[in-house]
Amino acid sequence: MPDSRPLHILLAPAPRIVTDIFDEADLARLRALGSLAIHEDGPMTDDVFNAHAHADIIVGQFDMPAERLQRAKNLRAIINVEGNFLPNVDYPYCFGNGVRVLNVSPVFAEPVAELALGMAIDLARGVSRSDRRFRDGTEHYGLDANRDAFSLYRQDIGFVGMGDLGRAILPLLAPFGVRVRAYDPWLPSMWIESLGCEAASLETVLRMSKLVFVVASVTDDNQGLLDATAFAMMPKGAALVLVSRAGVVDFDAMLDFAAQGHIRVATDVFPSEPVPRSHRMRDIDRILLSPHQAGALAPALREIGKRTVADAELIARGLPPVMCKIAQPETVARFRSTPVAKS
């Protein structure tokens, strides 16, 4: 029988802001489940945590080592509203004691996919580069402006990773009639092929693609996966769109190959943010820079609240959550994402 007593929910979403992700109707739905405590006044100290250690659901991404989890006798779920599985939770304890760990990363797939396609078209056709030249009076016209341009139509496209984000990009590419090869060692070939892609090795993806989307999460296994050797495999003039995590690439090597004119690059993520004003990437012509804005749309942030509430209501009824991503014991400890710096 499900536990029918009122729930206590602790909402401590820093670095996100409550009003960015929850509207009043969503907060009312959380309050309807029992009691709701909101903490936005500074870090989660042990004193603050102890006052809410009886919580049934925690919404936030503060540290949850075993020492805190052991005090949280009623805890059923931790919902990370930042968007990553962070290495600050004792996951084995949670799995062994019936505590669900969830995150809201699916809300970002569509807005990031949309920007990724825009960046890909820009790299292929040189729109922003022509704009810069027009403004400084060095523009070319007609065919002269397109000497190194290429079309996405019927192009060979590669993916490094094929999770939520990769699957959101695929339908956007469908009108172009592209051939897609994908590398993802966490997925069987059958799954990749069911999406209309060819399962391929990393080397094949890099060597055979005119445009590569890097959409893999950073893990123990793939930190710096795309290094100088990998970039050298790419055809001269090929393009790379990086919209997942900077840790998947050797960032300095990527900049070197762009500066040499071997590849063109678009990136929405960086090893450290904000990027120093003096960083050399700002002066490399073949790089398109986006300040980690791909997923940061107001509707996406509000969807965080709606998915959180929907899963909290299911958990209150003794049912499994379905709207957020669920941590898997085989993989969650291998993720190496870093927290976002601000909401």
Automatic annotation (TrEMBL):
<dbReference type="InterPro" id="IPR006140">
    <property type="entry name" value="D-isomer_DH_NAD-bd"/>
</dbReference>
<dbReference type="GO" id="GO:0051287">
    <property type="term" value="F:NAD binding"/>
</dbReference>
<dbReference type="Pfam" id="PF02826">
    <property type="entry name" value="2-Hacid_dh_C"/>
</dbReference>
<keyword id="KW-0520">NAD</keyword>
<feature type="domain" description="D-isomer specific 2-hydroxyacid dehydrogenase NAD-binding">
    <location>
        <begin position="117"/>
        <end position="294"/>
    </location>
</feature>
<dbReference type="InterPro" id="IPR036291">
    <property type="entry name" value="NAD(P)-bd_dom_sf"/>
</dbReference>
<protein>
    <submittedName>
        <fullName>Hydroxyacid dehydrogenase</fullName>
    </submittedName>
</protein>
<keyword id="KW-0560">Oxidoreductase</keyword>
<dbReference type="InterPro" id="IPR050857">
    <property type="entry name" value="D-2-hydroxyacid_DH"/>
</dbReference>
<comment type="similarity">
    <text>Belongs to the D-isomer specific 2-hydroxyacid dehydrogenase family.</text>
</comment>
<dbReference type="GO" id="GO:0016616">
    <property type="term" value="F:oxidoreductase activity, acting on the CH-OH group of donors, NAD or NADP as acceptor"/>
</dbReference>
